[in-house]
Design brief:
Number of domains: 3
Low-confidence stretches: 13-42, 84-98, 102-117
Strand order of the largest sheet: 7-13-12-11-10-8-9
CATH topology of the largest domain: Aspartate Aminotransferase, domain 2
Structural class: alpha/beta
Radius of gyration: 31 Å
Distance between the termini: 80 Å
Strand content: 15-25%
Number of strands: 17
CATH class of the largest domain: Alpha Beta
Shape: globular
Largest sheet: 7 strands, mixed
Length: 520
């Protein structure tokens, strides 16, 4: 009851001020308007309340009242109407001068007042401990800002020296290729910057169909469908294809986009140990326990090349088990398309198995120009279904024409110049051999992804910093990108690196490795 009486009297007081007196805004130049700010914020216990300060001056004497009031109250509405854009409201009456301010500092976000959002405080309270733990674990990921185009030689902001880049997916060095850049410019002139539409409304141009046909021909498939990224391609495939009665059997080290895509579908999920064919067979047998229905789809999902380890999926063995248990095979070829295999057709070609895999997803954002875009290629029936039902395809903007044109040019370059693929694999072999001679542990098969294993997250971060001081740009990878205690420097060798570039990188590794007692 006392609270109701107080709020009633307060409301009457405020109304009398505004109705009977001359009201005006507080002058920014008035010293009295320099009211307490963020250093004196009071937090209200009730999430639906807001803190305010009321300053009352008679002559030279100032009194301050601080309290909380409900946001859903007449008093709050009235004070909000009186407040100006300097976060104050003031009224003047017969020698007295009253000012009030809300105890926070965020006016422009909230139209007429600034206040600390209690919801934001709740979120921050939850997030800050996690952010602090990331810092304490030494796994905080800083983003260095490039001031040049993507290349084997780059510059970053706040660093005057040129760096050797050994951490990009630019396997063929095509990201700044002059022919690809010109193709993108021509497409901008002819087709514009973008479509402002999804594909099925008014977002398909001639070059989109040309690229899809190029991709299908490149992989020797019936059709292909474009996405804004391969992450979207993976998100759109499993949910569309698989039903509740189906099974998906996935390698435990598959990329996050495959894992997230699988989570979106309703199929039963089984996971097998990395590249372990005995475990894969056990999981395939397990999928027959409940139902032997021939209409059930059993889909084995694997990366062709595993991005953190540089290991290659044993496709011949997977194919043998798939045939035995009547399963389909899905392969993500992001770290293989364009440069792996004799003519860049990926792990299928590497194992002389072109056409043997049922579904392939890959990217245009790595070896093939490095811009963006992903795709699925396979049977015409599969691609037709994805065009009708795949949510990332149906509800995402079309790939921009400039990116489409640059990808077409990149595929043409790969098809017409086999030396591109040969150079990157020669460089990878040289780098791996020299690093192993020094005593470093290098994971993976003979692939341009060369993980230098260090184990400790802080050590990996420190190692990368020391390499940067020597003009070598590499990144330390740690949890949650890789398993705990499996931190590493992931070196990515490019066909654009010269032998001198490779040797300079190797020499820097040797120097830092001895300094940090990783090698003798």
């Amino acid at each position: 009851m006392k609270s109701l009486i107080f709020h009633f009297l307060f409301l009457c007081y405020m109304l009398s001020i505004c109705n009977a007196l001359t009201c005006k805004s507080c002058s920014i130049n008035d010293p009295f308007c320099s009211l307490p700010r963020d250093d004196d914020i009071r937090q209200c216990e009730n999430d639906n309340d807001i803190c305010y300060s009321w300053f009352h001056r008679v002559g030279g004497k100032i009194t301050v009242e601080r309290d909380c009031m409900p946001i859903m109250s007449p008093e709050y509405d009235l004070m909000k109407k009186m407040i100006n854009y300097d976060d104050h409201g003031c009224v003047k009456r017969m020698g007295t001068f009253d000012c009030f301010t809300f105890c926070s500092h965020d006016l422009l976000r909230y139209t007429s007042i600034r206040r600390v959002s209690t919801l934001t405080e709740v979120i921050n309270k939850r997030l800050k401990p996690e952010l602090n733990s990331i810092h304490q674990a030494g796994t905080w990921k800083n983003e260095r800002i490039l001031s040049t185009s993507q290349s084997s030689h780059i510059k970053i902001e706040n660093s005057p020296n040129e760096l050797l880049n050994f951490c990009a997916n630019n396997y063929l060095g095509l990201a700044n290729n002059s022919q690809i850049i010109q193709a993108a410019k021509n497409a901008l002139d002819k087709y514009g910057a973008g479509l402002s539409s999804v594909r099925f409304i008014c977002g398909t141009q001639t070059i989109h169909k040309q690229l899809e046909q190029r991709i299908a021909n490149f992989h020797q498939r019936e059709d292909a469908i474009l996405y804004i990224s391969c992450f979207d391609a993976n998100a759109g495939l499993f949910e569309t294809l698989l039903k509740e009665q189906d099974y998906i059997i996935s390698d435990e080290l598959n990329h996050a986009s495959i894992i997230d895509g699988i989570r979106l579908c309703k199929a039963k999920r089984l996971r097998y140990k990395h590249k372990d064919m005995s475990d894969l067979e056990l999981k395939l047998k397990e999928s027959f326990k409940d139902n032997n229905n021939d209409n059930i789809i059993r889909l084995i999902a694997t990366d062709g090349v595993f991005s953190m380890d540089g290991t290659i999926a044993p496709l011949p063995d997977i194919k043998r088990l798939a045939d035995k248990y009547k399963a389909l095979i899905f392969v993500d070829e992001c770290h293989a398309t364009g440069f792996f295999g004799k003519t860049g057709r990926g792990t299928e070609e590497h194992f002389n198995m072109i056409g043997k895999i049922d579904i392939i997803n890959s990217t245009l954002g790595k070896a093939l120009g490095g811009a963006a875009g992903g795709y699925t290629t396979g049977s015409k029936a599969l691609i037709d279904l994805l065009r009708q039902r795949s949510r990332p395809y149906l509800f995402s903007n079309t790939l921009p024409p400039s990116i489409v044109a640059s990808a077409i040019k990149a595929i043409d370059l790969v098809k017409n110049d086999s030396s591109l693929t040969g150079r990157v694999l020669e460089n990878a072999t040289y780098f791996r051999n020299e690093m192993e001679k020094l005593g470093f542990k290098i994971l993976g098969d003979n692939h341009p992804i060369c993980p230098v294993m260090l184990g400790d997250a802080r050590l990996a971060s420190q190692f990368a910093d020391e390499m940067l001081k020597r003009g070598i740009y590499v990144i330390g990878f740690s949890y949650p990108v890789v398993p705990k205690d499996r931190a590493r420097i992931r070196v990515q060798v490019s066909g654009a690196h010269s032998k001198a570039d490779l040797q300079r990188c190797i020499d820097a590794f040797a120097e830092v490795g001895r300094q940090l007692k990783v090698i003798k």
